[in-house]
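for the recovery benchmark. tokens below, seq after
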């Protein structure tokens, strides 16, 4: 598969309400207000949406694969009911003390997604709610975006400035709905600019 429009979303704190004790079952997975509709907007604007998530609860023995799959089934069902689509979920199951290259802030998970979709990483947009998300995006060569939900919701101005200094070029949005609005406007502007060239 080859695509020129690929958005990679973090999960906890970006799509669903962040829990410090991990989302261990479908009952504990709650979408952030407006997120389902935002994903639908991104999908209908012609973008492939893929989730990339650290799930160290697997490595820590807090939940098993069956529970994780059930959480993701609920997430995809609710997104679909809102008219959207998540193409796939990629996750790192390793605990922090394990050696891997897929646990964000390392870029392995994002690079795997880019390879699977035949995408040029400079054209891929990655969105998350943590510094690790931004760092992984930058390390993979993606365009980094931060949403002020989840872990970023409580950031003060000084802390936010520190994060942005570590990942130059990162853009900040109030939430995924605000990001979707920016993305749709950008796509509309690009389409309007290229339409006369196609007609020539």
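predicted aa per position
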């Amino acid at each position: 598969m080859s695509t020129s429009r690929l958005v990679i979303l973090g999960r906890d704190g970006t799509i669903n309400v962040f829990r410090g004790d991990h989302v261990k079952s479908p009952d504990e997975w709650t979408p952030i207000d407006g997120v389902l509709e935002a994903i639908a907007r991104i999908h209908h604007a012609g973008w492939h949406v893929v989730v990339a998530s650290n799930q160290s609860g697997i490595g820590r023995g807090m939940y098993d694969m069956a529970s994780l799959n059930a959480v993701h089934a609920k997430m995809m069902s609710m997104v679909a009911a809102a008219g959207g689509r998540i193409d796939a979920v990629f996750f790192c199951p390793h605990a922090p003390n394990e050696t891997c290259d897929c646990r964000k802030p390392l870029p392995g998970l994002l690079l795997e997604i880019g390879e699977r979709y035949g995408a040029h990483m400079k054209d891929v947009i990655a969105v998350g709610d943590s510094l690790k998300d931004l760092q992984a995006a930058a390390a993979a060569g993606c365009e980094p975006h931060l949403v002020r939900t989840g872990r970023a919701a409580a950031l003060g101005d000084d802390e936010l400035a520190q994060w942005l200094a570590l990942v130059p070029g990162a853009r900040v949005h109030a939430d995924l709905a605000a990001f979707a609005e920016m993305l749709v406007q950008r796509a509309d502007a690009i389409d309007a600019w290229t339409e006369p060239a196609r007609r020539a």
